[in-house]
Amino acid sequence: MNMHKYLSLLLLTLAFVFFLSMPGSKANDCFAGDAYAGDKYEYKVARITTIGIPEELLNASGEEGWELVLIHQEQRFKYLIFKRKAIDGYEKNKQVAVPSGK
Predict the structure, then answer these.
(1) In terms of CB atoms within 10 Å, which of 7, 30, 46, 82 comes out highest?
(2) What is the side-by-side strand order in the sheet with 77-85?
(3) What's the average model confidence in pLDDT over 18-41?
(4) CA 72-64-37 angle, 5° bins
(5) Which stretches of 1-102 are DSSP H helices?
(6) How far apart are CA 16 and CA 86, in angstroms?
(7) What is the pLDDT of residues 42-93, one digit of tens each?
(8) How many angstroms separate the CA atoms of 82 and 45, rounded?
(9) Phi and psi (nearest 5°) for 66?
(10) Which residue has the higher pLDDT, 63 or 18?
(11) Do residues 6 and 12 touch, judged by C-beta distance below 8 A?
(12) If DSSP codes are grouped into helix, strand and coil, which group holds residue 28?
């Protein structure tokens, strides 16, 4: 009989811990669009037509903060996909605005 008592208490405790771990609102979901405040990344794609992967390209991209995340091969072309964290206010990450003809 004592075993059932402890088992019930254990299940009740687990249910309580599970309830406390549930998110309070949908605003914290990573699919919340504009409400998502996590890291933002920018990407670049380099197309390679030579045999092998040029080490110079990898080193130059690494110096600029790019990280190689994927190599995709399609027939005779290789595509290297790089990413780096986009930093707010950092001029290198911003696109240049084209002035309007006012």
Answers:
(1) 82
(2) 41-48, 77-85, 67-74
(3) 64
(4) 80
(5) 2-21, 55-63
(6) 40
(7) 999 999 998 888 899 999 999 999 999 999 998 889 999 999 998 775 555 5
(8) 6
(9) -85, 140
(10) 63
(11) no
(12) helix
Residue in the block written with tokens 């206010």: 89
Token pair belonging to 27: 């605003």
What is the spatial distance between Cα 44 and Cα 61, in angstroms, rounded to a whole number? 10
CA distances in angstroms from 63 to 50, 60, 68, listed in the order given: 22, 5, 12
Give the C-alpha separation, 82 to 52, whole Å: 17
pLDDT given at position 38: 76
Q: pLDDT at position 33, please?
A: 57
Question: Which of the two residues, 31 and 18, has the higher pLDDT score?
Answer: 18
Question: What residues contact residue 43 under an 8 Å CB cut-off, 6+ apart?
Answer: 81, 82, 83
In angstroms, rounded to a whole number, what is the distance separating the alpha carbons of residues 57 and 59? 6
For CA atoms 46, 52, 56, 61, the dihedral sign is positive
**Mean pLDDT value across residues 1-17:** 69
